[in-house]
Amino acid sequence: MTSNEPQQQGVVSSHQSGTQMESAVEAIGAVRVLRVSGEIDVLTAPRLHAGIEEALRAAPAEGADGVVVDLSNVTFLASAGLAVLAEYVQPANQRDRLVVVANSSATLRPMSLTGLTDLLRVCQTLEDAHAALGDDLSRRG
Fold first, then answer.
1. pLDDT (tens digit, 9 = 90+) per residue, 19-68?
2. What is the DSSP-derived secondary structure letter of residue 139?
3. Which residues face 80 on adjacent strands?
4. Radius of gyration of the chain from its Cα atoms, rounded to whole angstroms
5. What positions does the domain STAS occupy (predicted)?
6. Superfamily designation of domain 17-139
7. pTM of the predicted model, to two decimals?
8. Which of 4, 19, 71, 86 has its CA 20 to 30 A from that of 45?
9. Domain boundaries, the chain
10. Are 54 and 35 within 8 A, CB to CB?
11. Coil/strand/helix, residue 26
């Protein structure tokens, strides 16, 4: 897929708990971006995992430089979501395929408290994440 149109990954919700998470994968420049919104907990974490896996598989096939997991619109990040992110911790010399955007206390605080901000590449903005992957958005229209 070379279009910049988002591919809807789905909405996961539980009527009992009120939990809802939405995700969509899109190509922006030379990077695949998984945009996530809502709450990431034990009910929705498997969907986060599936979205990251799909984006990582698709990136090389489409010639993408890497994957950004954009958590800018996540309102709650539980331990199940942290565990999913922890699965993608790589040695420092191999952290070149996945970058996480986290810029609110709902995502940054739990990631910082658990040490994930030291183990994953975490950026404040999508533009910073693109730069971390070597994709300069400023050169794009």
1. 799 999 998 888 999 999 999 999 999 999 999 999 988 888 777 888 99
2. G
3. none
4. 14
5. 21-133
6. STAS domain (3.30.750.24)
7. 0.83
8. 4
9. 17-139
10. no
11. strand
| Helix then strand then coil, % of the chain, to nearest 5 | 35, 30, 35
Residue 124 pLDDT = 96
Residue type, 94: Q
Inter-residue contact 7 to 26 (CB < 8 Å): yes
Instruction: For residues 26 and 42, give the distance between their C-alpha atoms in angstroms, rounded to a whole number.
Output: 25
The residue type found at 24 is A
DSSP single-letter state for residue 104: S
Residue range 77-116, pLDDT digits in tens: 999 999 999 999 977 655 568 999 999 999 999 999 999 9
**Could you tell me the sign of the dihedral formed by the alpha carbons of 38, 41, 43, 44, in that order?**
positive
